[in-house]
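Hi team,

Below is the intake form for Ribonuclease HII from Sulfitobacter profundi. Please confirm the fields before the structure is written into the shared record.

FORM ID: S-0412
PROTEIN: Ribonuclease HII
ORGANISM: Sulfitobacter profundi
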Amino acid sequence: MIPDFEFERGAAARGFRTIAGVDEVGRGPLAGPVTAAAVVFTEGQIPEGLNDSKKLTARARERLYDEIMSVAVVCVAHATVEEIEEHNILRASHLAMTRALAGLACAADYALIDGNMLPRDLALPAQPVVKGDARCLSISAASIVAKTVRDNLMVDLAQQHPGYGWETNMGYGSKSHMAALQDLGVTPHHRRLFKPVHNILYQANLLTD
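The structure came back. Fields below:
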């Protein structure tokens, strides 16, 4: 499956002028925010090689990120660990998506959203696209931008909290990350309601009671 521009063309044929692809990354990690990007392309100015960010090497993502930023209108937004815990990870993901759309320098009048659900309270017409990061070029670009930004953010956080391996596991529950949670404890950037983190906190409370 190779992404194409047919979803964008279809929206344009219905009269929409500024069509944004939107995707998020970071639902599964035990630490860090969830991050979303919105990308608006002009047809004819689209980098070659776009695809689902998970199918690309880190080097390819970095190269494509630079190319996307040079030709597209882009906004990246986050939902914090506190917001993930206040709402839930799905709602927080949707918050990040709506923030990314709202922050675009040119207001979109239509959105193509990765997945099978639309964020509630969306302020513009939109279409969910299942597996959109592998089917729709704007969503592919959004997945690349969001992952690149979030990965770099986790590398920065790894400098502040060494030992958890966030520079390589990006906050996901790798074996080394789980071992560090047991040895070093829970940081403010951990999602305390996620089961593995919650269990460690519960064990720690038992030991101190």
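SUMMARY LINE: Residues 137-160 form the longest helix (24 residues).

Thanks, M.
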